[in-house]
């Protein structure tokens, strides 16, 4: 099968959508399909279109459906699709109407869809693998990792601001990996480094290096205001790294409602309290880590492969039924 995977981030900086697109392409190629990744669709030979981002790929979805009314079309929903644009954007609604199937990255997203759309939706958790080789945490500091491009929706400096509230006895240090997509964010990160000895921003890093830095960390902080199902959560789970995350549907759908490491969006003091507790309360830290380890089967590559295989078989059966 010829598959066109459309993502607006196909040739941009390292983003969650780009990581997802390339992982899905590798997975689908391993099934024997021919897969191309494009930023848009303009009539290329294609038996199946997979569009990552309902609003930003709306034009590609419309053109593909117009050219191929009977061929399968899959639309994967991002955080901004689900929790921002779905209520107001006619483009998102149109993309979902035209889709044969809708992919969600975690089950809490179902609550945002109407009943007819839920019938078309399938949940495919994103997989990840622990970096190979031995990765040892730093001994002299309690290293906390933030992997987030500097954008307002990621609230990327929240962990740095929380670290300022910690007692002088704390050994905590924030290592932040992520590109500054706007100049003012780069200035803000540099200013924070100058004022805050607990914070270090490394900028954009190769994916493999980012994963190794994550794997050696004591914690990951995900302070996002909105997520569809963050890749970095899967990566932390695969590496058995405990997580402190904002209580948003995109994270609750992966970590579960009973996870003990949540804090309210934008709440610096609550995050500071959790950071200090994770550093000093061994029972709490062990509880975080035990919960994360129990989630590892959720992000196994084998599970994601099974999910995609089942979805493709479902699409093929629908095509056969239509003759």
Q: Which CATH architecture of the largest domain? A: 3-Layer(aba) Sandwich
Q: How many strands, what sense, and barrel or not for the largest sheet?
A: 6 strands, parallel
Strand content: 15-25%
Q: For the largest beta sheet, what order do the strands appear in spatially?
A: 2-1-3-4-5-6
Helix and strand element order: EHEEHEHHEHEEHEHEHEHEHEHHH
Q: How many E-type strands?
A: 12
Query: Which structural class is indicated by helix and strand composition?
Result: alpha/beta
Short description:
By secondary structure, the chain is α/β, with parallel strands linked by helices. The chain contains 13 helices and twelve strands.
Task: Describe what you observe in this structure.
The chain is α/β, with parallel strands linked by helices. The protein folds into two domains: 146 residues, Glycogen Phosphorylase B (Rossmann fold), CATH 3.40.50; 158 residues, 3-Layer(aba) Sandwich (Rossmann fold). It contains 13 helices and twelve strands. The protein has a six-stranded parallel β-sheet, sandwiched between helices. Helix 2 packs parallel to helix 4. The longest helix has 21 residues. The protein starts with a strand and ends with a helix.
